[in-house]
Specification:
The complex is a heterodimer. By secondary structure, chain A is of the alpha/beta class. Chain A has two domains: 58 residues, DNA polymerase, domain 1 (Orthogonal Bundle), CATH 1.10.150; 269 residues, P-loop containing nucleotide triphosphate hydrolases (Rossmann fold). The longest helix of chain A has 22 residues. The relative contact order of chain A is 0.13. Chain B folds into three domains: 55 residues; 182 residues, Rossmann fold, CATH 3.40.50; 114 residues, no CATH class. Helix content of chain B is 46%, strand content 17%. Chain B has 18 helices and 15 strands. The longest helix of chain B has 17 residues.
Chain lengths: 346, 413
């Protein structure tokens, strides 16, 4: 590995290279005072450089049998870990089925659709559902809701929270007639209290918040879902430099992905649609362009199919592409009316 | 927040000076660069850059609230928990109390269906004393199409609230609270919008109506000189009017758009109203007032995008169906605009009957209410909405429309 790749400042790098230290191995046997003398820098600074260099070279070296690359995991371990991580239900069985049980924690999922399709509804539903207690097959966690559009309606959250509690009580009555211990002690206000709402008013704030989330989540460990409604808005309004936009967006995507991995939480990005000229006709596609479409692990598109709302898995490394109907009711996201009967029988 | 000065956010002096030396003055400048770009530009190590970026981010990032405190705050501070009742019982129930504060509500419909009538009624309602269910405030009515009729306003008032309007001097007082303004060009609109922002709070304005948004684009934007005007107005007005928390409008957006229109007859990269969309939204948000805008309709062109690429196969089969509808209407401002409005109400005519549809709303199911325009304004024929499914939610019908208009035209006289 070369010195050029070390995370040190440009002038330090310049000094290293001009003094002839181009590879890491050339630094490995040096003492800080020698280096300080050679580069005419302070001992402290030299010690810093060597520390960074030794970290860098460790990445290169094989370390025993198991970890050939430091920080890597075997596929087998990953499989186990995947199974350990719960999924957040969407409250729609068909949708859960095609998502492999719900929205996956540790992954970034992008959901897009035309206006009025139910993106915000799905976002709110997830923010409520993540709080379903562990006893009821939920996560018993908290949610962060990042609102860039101002379309978050507390009245609606209250409705969905009430319906969710109602459903849980009902399920309680059906399954646990015999033992009393699992009495539900949840109030809609508790659910509302556990949704942390950020209102973002510019793309700078959006970037700042993305950077800050890591710290915030370290302080609020039980946050298990981050919903960004929508990731698009500010980046669609006031941008002239498209290259800058792409750069900033991919920066955001990378940070969110890291966040999802490190804290084991689900990141849900809601996206708008735009029209695109493909093969001689105008078609709908999710906004923010082609390079953005690489940034998310999963991509779900919501669309109208005849009289029913459908969700389609457009991209996913682990799920097969499929579509499923869902509906938006006064209670929130639910099974589509036509499949309701089938589910009751099961 | 985005334009906070780096020198004033409490970074260690040494690093703040480096930022200043490289001409990175605001938080926006700093956050628009990646960490690696910053390292290169500032010539400092990784650790310093990350800690500086983390510090800037923590300062710039907006504060959080729990949804509960958000709700309690609204219930406590605002009349009817932040809703303007429309006086139409069914609609008010569907929308949890009326037109919500702080968001954009859009009315779409064919000409003559009653959009302006509805706007007039809402203006009256907002100006009424709170003892009569109004908001007791001023109304700014931006009348782009010159359709505002004060005679009709008084008529609606006298018929709907006789007890107030028959009181001596009240009609004058009520209508005196409604400020009608007719912009002559898009640039004038842009300029005035920024002045309105300042005066909203000082003058107890409780409702802003823009009738119509579509006319702003179709009527005014004839490219060329207009963009130069916008550029100059924005750059003039900008340092004074914009508080730090607002996104700066990108002047280049307009030029970019004009440019792309000149170069190729394709779809513009950015929406012509892009800046207005975010500005009006923030206006609603920060002054916590309802903003009602109207939108026109246009007929759908045959190559209109309404399908995703994975649906194309099926689309070819259903194309026949589309043709069957004949006069298929869509909202004049496209999908970009539709994303920006929070509530969309469609006014339409179907087999000789007018309907009001809640076509997009985060709080209500897609309901349709039959309505009629009477001397006292709009009235619902039934307060129980008909629930809609599928494409009906977004479709805009105008069948038998002309019959109704002639009919009501006679009845008004």
């Amino acid at each position: 590995m070369e010195v050029g790749r070390l995370p040190i400042s440009a002038s330090q790098r310049g000094k290293l290279i001009s003094a002839g230290y181009t590879t890491l191995s050339s630094l490995s046997s040096l003492s800080p005072s020698d280096l300080a003398l050679d580069l005419r820098i302070s001992d402290n600074e030299a010690a810093e450089i060597l520390k960074v260099a030794s970290l860098g070279s460790r990445l290169d070296e094989p370390e025993g049998g198991r970890a050939i690359v430091n920080g890597a995991q075997t596929a087998w371990d990953m499989l186990h870990e995947d199974e350990m991580f719960p999924r957040i239900t969407t409250s729609c069985l068909d949708l859960d089925n095609i998502l492999g049980g719900g929205i996956n924690c540790k992954e970034v999922t992008e959901i897009g659709g035309v206006p009025g399709m139910g993106k915000t509804q799905l976002g709110i539903q997830l923010a409520v559902n993540v709080q379903i207690p562990v006893d009821y097959g939920g996560l018993g966690a908290k949610a962060i809701y990042i609102d860039t559009e101002g379309s978050f309606m507390v009245e609606r959250v209250l409705q969905i929270a009430e319906a969710c509690i109602e459903d849980m009580t009902e399920c309680n009555g059906l399954l646990r007639k015999d033992f009393q211990a699992g009495q539900l002690k949840m109030h809609p206000n508790n659910i509302l209290e556990n949704i942390f709402y950020f209102r973002v008013c510019s793309y700078t704030e959006q970037i700042a918040l993305t950077n800050y989330l890591d710290k915030f989540i370290s302080e609020h460990k039980d946050v298990k879902v981050v919903i960004v409604d929508s990731v698009t808005f500010h980046f669609r309004q006031d941008f002239d430099d498209m290259a800058l936009r792409t750069r900033l967006l991919s920066g955001i995507a990378l940070k969110l992905m890291k966040l999802a991995k490190e804290h084991g939480l689900a990141v849900v990005l809601l996206n708008q649609v735009t029209t695109k000229y493909i093969e001689g006709s105008f078609q709908l596609t999710l906004a923010l362009g082609d390079s953005w479409s690489h940034s998310c692990t999963n991509r779900v598109i919501l669309y109208w199919n005849g009289n029913e709302r459908y969700a389609y898995i457009d991209k996913s490394p682990s799920l097969r592409s499929a579509s499923a109907p869902y509906s938006v009711t006064s209670k929130g996201i639910r099974n589509s009316a036509s499949t309701c009967k089938r589910i009751r029988m099961m | 927040m985005a334009n906070k000065l780096i020198s004033e956010i409490g970074l260690p002096k040494s690093i703040a000076n480096i930022f200043a030396a490289r001409n990175i003055v605001t938080a926006k400048d700093a956050l628009s660069l990646t960490e690696f770009q910053l390292m290169e530009l500032l010539d400092v190590g990784w650790a310093e850059v990350t800690s500086a970026v983390a510090h800037i981010s923590a300062i710039v990032c907006p504060p959080y609230q729990s949804a509960l405190s958000l709700m309690e705050q609204r219930v406590k501070n605002e009349h009817l928990a932040g809703h303007l009742p429309t006086g139409l019982k069914g609609l008010d129930e569907a929308l949890c109390g009326g037109i919500p504060f702080g968001v954009l509500t859009e009315l779409v419909g064919p000409a003559g269906i009653g959009k302006t009538q509805f706007c007039l009624k809402l203006s009256l309602l907002a100006s009424l004393p709170s003892s009569y269910g109004g908001l007791d405030g001023h109304v700014i009515y931006i009348d782009v199409e010159s359709k505002f009729s004060s005679r009709r306003l008084i008529e609606i008032g006298a018929k709907s609230f006789p007890e107030i309007f028959l009181m001596k001097g009240m009609a004058k007082k009520m209508s005196g609270r409604i400020l009608v303004w007719r912009p002559a060009s898009l640039s004038e609109f842009t300029e005035r919008l920024q002045q309105i922002k300042v005066s909203l709070h000082q003058n107890e304005v409780k409702l802003l109506v823009i009738d119509s948004m579509a006319a702003l684009v179709s009527g005014f934007s004839r490219f060329g000189s207009i963009f130069k005007e916008i550029k100059s107005t924005i750059s003039l007005a900008l340092p004074i009017v914009f508080p730090k928390s607002l996104p700066l409008p990108s002047i280049a957006n307009f030029t970019d758009w004009a440019h792309s229109r000149e170069c190729e007859q394709g779809i513009p990269r950015q929406h012509p109203l892009g800046w207005h969309v975010s500005f009006i939204k923030s206006l609603a948000e920060f002054s916590r007032i309802p903003i009602v805008v109207t939108n026109q309709v246009r007929s759908q062109s045959s190559d209109e995008a309404c399908q995703f690429s994975f649906q194309v196969q099926r689309w070819k089969e259903t194309k026949e169906d589309h043709a069957r509808y004949g006069s298929h209407l869509v909202a004049a401002l496209g999908v970009h605009w539709a994303h920006a409005v929070t509530i969309r109400l469609v006014l339409e005519a179907k087999s000789g009957q007018r309907f009001l549809k809640v076509s997009k709303s985060p709080i209500s199911a897609p309901l349709a209410f039959p309505f009629d325009i009477t001397a006292s304004g709009m009235s619902l024929l039934s307060d129980d909405g008909i629930e809609l499914t599928g494409p009906d939610i977004n479709a805009i019908h105008s069948q038998g429309h002309s019959d109704i208009i002639n009919f009501t035209g006679e009845s008004l006289q």
